[in-house]
């Protein structure tokens, strides 16, 4: 599988997710559009907070390793990632993002880049058994 890097602006309509917006009773929501099937996947600030400094990937380990090889994270700047599969077609993707400290120990999240499969066969992921 060939993995390509695209600018965040090409896939998601919000580039900054700020937790302080919740104090104004707002939520920062971004809509990610799948390159392969056009499905929209919503992300909000809490998605990026949960993966802050985590090395857990939601992808198969082989795919996660392939993303790591194409574009290693900049660990000196605490760059983080959020891996996921499109809910509609199963295509794997990674959003790399940077935490930006705005108050001591408080961060907002700025998207850096999106990594995705250049081609995907469109086979949806199996549904989890109930």
How is the secondary structure organized here?
Elements: E1 3-7, E2 16-17, E3 29-33, E4 40-44, H1 45-50, H2 61-70, E5 80-85, E6 92-103, E7 106-117
Question: How does this model look, in words?
Answer:
The protein is mostly beta strands. The chain has one domain. It is 12% helix and 36% strand. It is built from 2 helices and 7 strands; from the N terminus they run ββββααβββ. Strands 1, 2, 5, 6 and 7 form a 5-stranded antiparallel sheet that branches. The protein has a two-stranded antiparallel sheet with strand order 3-4. β6 (92-103) and β7 (106-117) form a beta hairpin. The chain is globular and about 45 Å long. The N and C termini lie far apart (31 Å).
Strand content: 35-45%
Order of helices and strands: EEEEHHEEE
Could you tell me how far the N terminus lies from the C terminus, measured between alpha carbons in angstroms?
31 Å
**With helices defined by DSSP (H or I, 4 residues minimum), what is the helix count?**
2
* Overall tally of structural domains: 1
- As residue ranges, the low-confidence spans are none
> Describe the biggest sheet?
5 strands, antiparallel
Question: What oligomerization state is this entry in?
Answer: single chain
Rg calc: 15 Å
Bin the helical content: 10-25%
Give the number of DSSP strands: 7
Name the shape in a single word: globular
Q: What does the average pLDDT come to?
A: 85
Structural class of the secondary elements? mainly beta
In short:
By secondary structure, this protein is mainly β.
């Amino acid at each position: 599988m060939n993995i390509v890097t695209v600018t965040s602006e090409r896939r998601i309509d919000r580039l900054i997710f700020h937790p302080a917006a919740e104090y104004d009773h707002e939520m920062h929501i971004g809509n990610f559009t799948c390159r392969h099937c056009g499905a929209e996947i919503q992300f909000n600030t809490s998605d990026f907070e949960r993966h802050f400094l985590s090395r857990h990937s939601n992808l198969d380990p082989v795919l996660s390793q392939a993303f790591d090889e194409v574009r290693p994270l900049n660990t000196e700047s605490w760059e983080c990632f959020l891996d996921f599969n499109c809910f509609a077609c199963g295509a794997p993707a990674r959003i790399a993002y940077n935490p930006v400290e705005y108050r001591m120990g408080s961060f907002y999240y700025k998207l850096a880049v999106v990594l995705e499969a250049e081609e995907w066969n469109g086979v949806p992921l199996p549904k989890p058994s109930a």
